[in-house]
Amino acid sequence: MTKQWVYRFSEGKKEQKMLLGGKGANLAEMTNLGLPIPPGFTITTESCIHYFDEGRTLWTPILQQIDSALIDLENAVGKSFHDPANPLLVSVRSGAAFSMPGMMDTILNLGLNDASVAGLAEQTQNPTFAFDSYRRFIQMFADVVKSVPRIHFEAILDTVKNENDYQFDNQLSLDDLTALVAQYKAVYQRETGETFPQEPLDQLQQAIQAVFASWNNERAILYRDIHNISHNLGTAVTVQSMVFGNRGNDSGTGVAFTRNPATGEKKLFGEFLMNAQGEDVVAGIRTPLNIDTLEEVMPAVYNEFKNIAEKLEDHYADMQDIEFTIEKGKLYLLQTRNGKRTAAAAVAVAVDLADEGLITKEEAVMRIETGQLDKLLHPTFDTKALDEAAILATGLGASPGAASGHIYFSTADAEAAQKDGLPVILVRRETSPEDLAGMMSSEGILTARGGMTSHAAVVARGLGKCCVAGCTAAVIDEENKTVVIDGVTMHQGDLLSIDGATGRVYAGTIAKQNPTLGGKFSTFMEWVNEMKLLQVKANADSPTDVKQALALGAEGVGLCRTEHMFFHKDRIPVVRQMILSRTLDERKKYLAELLGMQRQDFQEMFALLQDRPMTVRLLDPPLHEFLPTAHADKVALAEAMGTGLAGLEAHIDSLHEVNPMLGHRGCRLAVTYPEIYRMQVRAIIEGAIVASEETGSTITPEIMIPLVCDVDELRYVKAEIVAEIEEVFSEKAATIPYLIGTMIEIPRAAVTSDEIAMEADFFSFGTNDMTQMGFGFSRDDAGKFLQEYEDKGLLKPNPFHTLDVKGIGKLVKLSAKLGRETNPGLVLGVCGEHGGDPESIAFFSSIGLDYVSCSPYRVPIARLAAAQVAIKENKAKMSVQKDAVLSAK
Amino acid sequence: MTKQWVYRFSEGKKEQKMLLGGKGANLAEMTNLGLPIPPGFTITTESCIHYFDEGRTLWTPILQQIDSALIDLENAVGKSFHDPANPLLVSVRSGAAFSMPGMMDTILNLGLNDASVAGLAEQTQNPTFAFDSYRRFIQMFADVVKSVPRIHFEAILDTVKNENDYQFDNQLSLDDLTALVAQYKAVYQRETGETFPQEPLDQLQQAIQAVFASWNNERAILYRDIHNISHNLGTAVTVQSMVFGNRGNDSGTGVAFTRNPATGEKKLFGEFLMNAQGEDVVAGIRTPLNIDTLEEVMPAVYNEFKNIAEKLEDHYADMQDIEFTIEKGKLYLLQTRNGKRTAAAAVAVAVDLADEGLITKEEAVMRIETGQLDKLLHPTFDTKALDEAAILATGLGASPGAASGHIYFSTADAEAAQKDGLPVILVRRETSPEDLAGMMSSEGILTARGGMTSHAAVVARGLGKCCVAGCTAAVIDEENKTVVIDGVTMHQGDLLSIDGATGRVYAGTIAKQNPTLGGKFSTFMEWVNEMKLLQVKANADSPTDVKQALALGAEGVGLCRTEHMFFHKDRIPVVRQMILSRTLDERKKYLAELLGMQRQDFQEMFALLQDRPMTVRLLDPPLHEFLPTAHADKVALAEAMGTGLAGLEAHIDSLHEVNPMLGHRGCRLAVTYPEIYRMQVRAIIEGAIVASEETGSTITPEIMIPLVCDVDELRYVKAEIVAEIEEVFSEKAATIPYLIGTMIEIPRAAVTSDEIAMEADFFSFGTNDMTQMGFGFSRDDAGKFLQEYEDKGLLKPNPFHTLDVKGIGKLVKLSAKLGRETNPGLVLGVCGEHGGDPESIAFFSSIGLDYVSCSPYRVPIARLAAAQVAIKENKAKMSVQKDAVLSAK
Fold first, then answer.
1. Has residue A1 got a pLDDT over 70?
2. Do the strands A488-491 and A482-485 form a parallel or antiparallel pair, or are they unpaired?
3. Which residue numbers delimit the PEP-utilising enzyme mobile domain (chains A, B) (predicted)?
4. How near does any CA of chain A get to the CA of B806, in Å?
């Protein structure tokens, strides 16, 4: 059998996208649905590959099949390339399997020549239309096939319009158009050295070859390289008979969505123009009419279109974006595709389609991209307002949301301004834990240094604050309270806007839209919960965080960072005095003060969570992070402690570390100062006992020891903790259940997890730190060079954003395997930033972890990602089972 | 058959140390050799265990066997516990398998009582001797068996001596002694509530139980805990008939080595005293005589002893340390053991014994502990001078050797003092690469911060300089040029001594002994080379280093750190200007200057090495390490660069990193500034081409890319390097072979080594950095808490000193396995500090690495360790083969 290189629309179907391109496959599908599609045929992508294999010539068998399809087309429409009185006109379009902007697109009106233009004029009784069509065809053909710059044609057109004082193209007279055709042909000859081809078949072959050739033009190759599309796919070419919406007031053209793409409302949404071609709608010369108006103008056509739209939506089981043309009162469809939509509409449509029975709930859940949810959960700038805003610079979109406010350069100034009721943007070179209060007082944070996992970024995401980090174009002078961006100096109090999704920084304020999480969103998230297997918990450090986390659907708290509680204004002085204590007794005195504060927090959090789990991480950062850096703070502290400033500074200096990330922190603090962890554990257990009594729930605190590198180290710290717990139990004459686990974040802990698991009830993978240590990247410093890596195509995606499965993932997988070997009941989770990243969540699910924990604002995204991976895994499992059943037969 | 709880000397042998203890086994062995050993028997270690199992009582079957052995003993010596006229006197000694200071040691003269003391006086015609013996026995028994403090007895003795104006015990008259015996017995009764036991069998049973009980006294348990000795071994008890060296001028006692323990010379070495007991020799009241003198005093005894000594040495195949007693002209041996000796003697004895055919060369090589060699290679303080030196403080013994000198607090001052001919001790809070010149100008380095792998420690070991690091007791004020140690303030120029082996810091100067590596050392090291399988290379950064490395037997250079070349006085300004260049052209200008300097170094090093390999590591540390910190240096640099100081400081500040260890360094610099590596590679290849032509050797430079974390990163950097090499080849119209490899030091590189190996000719494991990142320990900071870990028994041994096999070793092993899977020809080596550590070398050998590289001064140690592990592995292999042969039979 001869290979089929050309498919008539009636011969294809929508599944043949790889062979016929997206356009060709959909036109075939619609044809076979019996819809009014102008007839045509598609030359396959394989023909394109063959075209290159043959040294960029069209192979004879392909040409023969084109001829044959063309004869069928002529018969179908009753017109012919060779009958100037009744000429066949066609459009020629490229159509790859994936939409590719870099390629040649469309030639319309092919088939026109000096003879047939007269025939068309006669046939349509509309010579202006005929010559206008010819003029457009010459220009498109010259542009697309011969790369003649459009400017040559546009210059001529402009001259005519200027001479005649025309504003619009449709003011051109027949004489003008006849003259323009002659001039256009002259330009064509001048620029190409050839006369404009008069033989339609010749026109067609040249056009097809031009489409094929455009597959390998520079822009297309670059586009495929960037988007990881294979260079071996080729493009198809679709040849379709022309219909004209510009043949009078009984003609028209339009585009409509089957549902509202902004809200998802189930109602035709679109616009049309009478007596116009598609490009006129786009050109915006006349204002198109709302699609509803079509019901009044042409009720029969409207109803037909409405029925077709419903039929297409049912058929494709998704909202459609449909292009149509009406020629002389007859409706034709030119294209249908799944319509683009806003995040809110996407959710609403998916829920509605499932409710309507068009798709399953699983399909509905698979329809929403996790990235879309993010937009739903945060305020965004008003799209129209954005158009008028001046972009000053672009940094990293480190925490989504949009914020406008007055800029302040210190925590104190930010707090003061917020108290005065001003919206604040905190601007810092980089943030440190000291800035927490300032960040909480701000709408958004802008930093000059640091990457996606810098302190500012991590904390902002945790707080749900918008953040642009690593905006290197911002030269910040914190002393003098100025920032210079793009040559403009801004002072404290000036207005600035930042978009934490795009990383853009704008001058002044911009109007915002707040998220509205309606009933359909809730329904959707309920379905998500039904399907997901991974537990999704939130990182939460305060009662406020816990409330937020529960509201966003968290199933518990996977990471409560106790140190964040230390930074409250009334606590930090006590913390500082505790750290700088010269004797154990002195330290214990301050720890006793902190005990009450921490116990109260834990009690409230446990009471809010009731029987939902909470994992509390004991003190993790190096102690010097809590110490003052500002001179005034040092003076105040020295006074409070009754020591001289010099002595205090020397003491602080002695705590300085060359590489704090790899320094005296985490459980290392508990080896040297066991009393700190003992105080924290006492606060946790005492808080939990009270909360248990208050709520009547069984509260099981999960105590997590960070930065463990060795089983003996864990055993040592655990013994201290257990001793303290036993003391509390005995003092209170009460016991509650509790778990003790560890973070696995140090590479050595990962490779010795078989030992460590024997002392742990659970592992929580701290993939942030494991990425830092596993790659040897300091997240505070790596921003400087990782950008160059990205520019050079290295280390993509950013391993701080998406878990590096190949390296860090291997360590996590190994650790999970080793841990469960010696402790089969070991509970495994993730509390790094990756816990909120969909790709990473898929990996965590694939290696059998039990839960992920992420910022409250990432919880819905993580839930969706978990549901989607569960659906995929289930599908894969079903398919394996099916194969097994089949092979068993 | 009844279990044997008691072994007569004639029933045992030297292999039964576990059962009979070291002493008992050796006495048995000597008895069976037919040597003159006073007869006796040993109660086994198993009896000791049984003693505890039975609730601290002697089990009847054991008592019965003791009785039986005692009867044989009485028969053998013709004396009896029950014949006061001819009393049997015995010594009772503990004897565990391992020597244990914490335990009860010796009771002499057991068997004496009020009746037999008279019999002994009569029998020996020496009542003074008899009563003196009884007095000593009462005191020893009271002390050892009943824990009566010695002070009670010593007080009485002192009173008598004072009353009579005696200086020495041997001035006591018979009356004095008779009176003392009465008083001692009264003290015994007062302190114990019992009369002194008069029944010899009762004395013996009490003594045996006391020895057994002492196995579990607090000091013994602590000692075993510290030295990792099992608590279940028990101690044996040896009961031996007494001989007396204090029975007149035909009696005596002494101790002698079969060879000189200081030099190894084959000649009896020892001393003796006539008419004395062993403790008199130790007490130092009379000056003992040289063993040679015995030949004149008692020629027959001397000759008998000499023959016995030779026989023992032949039998034990090692130098012996022999205790003997002469009683009434008859020679008895009381103990023999392998003699302790100096490092120099150890080498000489091992070589001699092998030459004499007593041991094989392999055994000779196994005889020397690697730690001993270290002492041979460095100067040490004179032992006697040390006794008089005042220890000011103790830090970490970070680089062996001993140094005295004037203290200076900066590189500039140190250099100036050295030019003036002064020996210098550089005193710094911690060192940085800037201090290199100062370290080179010093005899030794003392730092207050940092651990065994701090900058100071690592560089000092590389330079062979002595270093005490992390001496926290030293409060250093670099500005005012003072250091306060132990309350004493020292100023610039004051004298100080440091011992880099022990970590001790002394006031003033101390006399030194320099190493003398004689002919026997060379012979020994030749044997080592014959046996080892691992290649041993040296880390060397300059032609001087290469000479040193070759002199110490390095088989090439495994790590040449190019950055160390940057710190030379005439180069660092160029390096700084290169780093701070604002444009690529500017940077290239300075790189061109550096090119000439580096090329010259490489050329000289390659010429020295000829066909021996050299691995050159391209620039590794973060650039800011090269930048000035001192104000004066900054001013000078700003002037040289024609920029303002403020601008320069801002630029330097912008290069600051929070965690430089995890920052912009290693091949990351080559991704952002490819021109730096290109310059270095050009210098290497050009230098190698010239050296090849000069020497006629085939020189194959091995170029090493540090800090690789990903194969794409390696591929990118390698492509730049290869392009530069091709340029050089084409310019010079010459080619030479070369290899390109990578350091594996980042955990992710280890776990993705299968990919990385596809782009690498060799891997060199950078176990220092891998330990830092694998554990999450900054070597600059970890000193602060690792000491507490060690104190608490955690993380031993220090993972920076001995490779952590369980964790980091697992990564190295995995990397080696993955790497050879995809690249079977991959060469594997180690260039971290662990490359010079014997335990680590054994591990590297066991996982099949090809070479280790270490500081030149560690090369002999590494060679020895490599030989020893090869011998052990060969033995294990032979034993497996033997088992296979046996099981096949």
1. no
2. antiparallel
3. 423-489
4. 7
Q: How far apart are CA B253 and CA B321, in angstroms?
A: 14
Rounded to a whole number of angstroms, the distance from the CA of B750 to the nearest CA of chain A is 9
Read off the pLDDT of residues A326-355 as tens digits, 9 standing for 90 and up.
999 999 999 888 888 888 889 999 999 999
Calculate ∠ Cα B800-B806-B812, nearest 5°.
75
Which amino acid is it at A268? L
Residue B724 one-letter amino acid: E
* Among B residues 727-756, those touching chain A with beta carbons less than 8 Å apart: 745-748, 751-752, 755
Of the partner residues B659, B671, B804, the one whose CB lies closest to the CB of residue A659: B659
Establish if A793 touches chain B: CB-CB under 8 angstroms. Answer: yes
Percentage of chain A beyond pLDDT 90 is 67
Return the minimum-mean-pLDDT range out of A719-723, B168-172, B847-851. Answer: B168-172
For residue B321, is pLDDT > 60?
Answer: yes
| Cα B458 from chain centre | 18
Token pair recorded at residue A737: 């259940």
C-alpha span between B835 and B539 (Å, rounded): 10
Inter-chain CB proximity A712 and B781 less than 8 Å:
no
pTM of the model: 0.81
The pLDDT score that the predictor gives to residue A377 is 82
H/E run at residue B499: strand B495-499
In what order do the strands lie in the sheet containing B391-394?
Answer: B391-394, B504-507, B495-499, B402-408, B424-428, B444-447, B466-469, B396-399
Instruction: Determine whether the interchain pair B751/A811 forms a contact, defined as Cβ–Cβ distance below 8 Å.
Output: yes
Catalytic residues of B: 455, 831
CA gap A506, A302 in Å, rounded:
45
CA angle A673, A674, A677 (to 5 degrees): 110
Mean pLDDT of all residues in A185-189: 96
A111-127 per-residue burial string, b: 16 or more CB within 10 A, e: under 16: bbbeebbbbbbeebebb
Residue type, A394: T
Test mutation, B430, B653, B781, B813, chain A, max A CBs within 10 A = B781
In chain B, the domains with their CATH numbers are 6-241 (3.30.1490.20), 252-341 (3.30.470.20), 379-513 (3.50.30.10)
CA–CA separation, B832 and B799 (whole Å):
12
For residue A832, pLDDT over 60 is answered with: yes
Q: What's the confidence (pLDDT) of residue B516?
A: 65
Helices (H), A329-432: 343-355, 361-367, 370-377, 383-388, 411-419
pLDDT in tens, A432-461: 877 888 898 899 999 998 777 678 887 887
pLDDT at residue A517 greater than cutoff 90? no
Complex ipTM above 0.85? no
Chain A residues in contact with B774 by the CB 8 A cut-off are 746-748, 773
From chain B, the residues in CB contact with A707 under 8 A are 776
Q: How many CB atoms lie within 10 A of CB B68?
A: 13
Q: Which of B87, B12, B138, B472 is nearest to B242 (CA)?
A: B87
Give the separation between CA A511 and CA A383, rounded to whole angstroms: 9
Please tell me whether residue A168 adopts helix, strand or coil conformation: coil
B659 interaction partners in chain A (CB closer than 8 Å): 659-662, 778, 780-781
Inform me whether the pLDDT recorded for B1 exceeds 80.
Answer: no
| Residues of A known to be catalytic | 455, 831
* Mean pLDDT score, A136-165: 92
The 10s digit of each residue's pLDDT in B276-300 is 887 776 555 677 889 999 999 999 9
* pLDDT interval class at B879 (50, 70, 90): confident
